[in-house]
Design goal:
The protein is α+β, with helices and mostly antiparallel strands. The protein is built from 9 helices and 6 strands. 12% of the residues are buried.
Length: 167
């Protein structure tokens, strides 16, 4: 992947070998795109998401979930990744919030308030995350019980997934 971020073309051209690849393989398709922004900024990878980058600034990891999924599953990912538009990215680093979102309380909430794609959940952050009644801030503190429980859940799930063992 070649990703110049929001770099202007003049600056991106300081890497002529990379720009040559994009001119050959990407620009012809972008020239046909219906959206002006895709034709105008043909060397850029995808669409600009300044709000996302601002929310992730200074964080080492974030929580992600597939937008369309049979099983709602949250996972931590490094923030320097380039995320697919089919992935919902939450600027959350702590295990307490992970534990709450991965809970048996949040799952039915999500199925109730989101739409579906065929028989899969189409998670809607504005309907599910923004409206979800999270516990009080002190319960989500890094030194609280939910942080330890969420960490144990995350680590146990990761161990089970990598071993191929079923719970």
């Amino acid at each position: 992947m070649i990703n110049f971020g929001e770099m202007p073309l003049e600056e991106a051209e300081k890497w002529p070998d990379l720009i040559a690849i994009l001119r050959e393989k990407v620009k012809p398709q972008r020239d046909k795109d219906k959206r002006d922004v895709r034709r105008k900024y043909w060397w850029r990878f995808g669409e600009a998401t300044p709000a996302l980058f601002a929310a992730l600034e200074g964080k080492k990891r974030c929580l992600v979930a597939a937008q369309i999924t049979k099983h709602l599953c949250f996972s931590f990912q490094p923030t320097e990744r380039v995320f697919s538009q089919k992935l919902i990215v939450f600027p959350i680093e702590n295990y307490a919030r992970f534990g709450v979102l991965q809970s048996r309380i949040h799952a039915p909430w999500s199925w109730l308030l989101s739409s579906t794609m065929k028989s899969d959940l189409s998670y809607s952050p504005s309907h599910c995350f923004d409206t979800f009644p999270f516990p009080a801030a002190e319960a989500l503190a890094p030194t609280g019980d939910l942080e330890a429980i969420g960490a144990r859940l995350y680590e146990t799930r990761a161990r089970l997934m990598s071993s191929g063992t079923r719970a």
